[in-house]
Specification:
The protein is of the alpha/beta class and about 90 residues long. The chain contains 4 helices and 3 strands. Helix 3 links the parallel strand 2 and strand 3. The protein is globular and about 30 Å long.
């Protein structure tokens, strides 16, 4: 995976993460995964554990965290524009 950060907002993100040629196959240390999908806590936790087990950084921005979405998008835009490593801390 060439991208430093993957943004996901899907009905069934598990298929994209765990499926053939999915996100996990290309994920490596310091890569970021931002999940904006509205899935149940169990699915989100399963994805978070899989991402962090590969050394990646996980951020969930769901309905419960919708109030921080503008901040997340501004921060991610800033990281992309400056081409800095993503998620310098504070995430699972």
């Amino acid at each position: 995976m060439h991208a430093h950060t993957i943004l996901v907002c899907l009905l069934l993100p598990s298929q994209v993460v765990f499926g053939a040629q999915g996100v996990l196959e290309g994920l490596s240390a310091s890569k970021g995964y931002v999940d904006m999908s509205t899935v149940d806590e169990s699915t989100s936790q399963k994805i978070a554990e899989a991402v962090t087990a590969k050394g990646g950084r996980f951020l969930e921005v769901s309905r419960a965290k919708a109030a921080i979405l503008p901040w997340v998008l501004i921060t991610l835009s800033s990281l992309v524009l400056r081409q800095e490593p993503c998620f310098q801390g504070g995430l699972r």
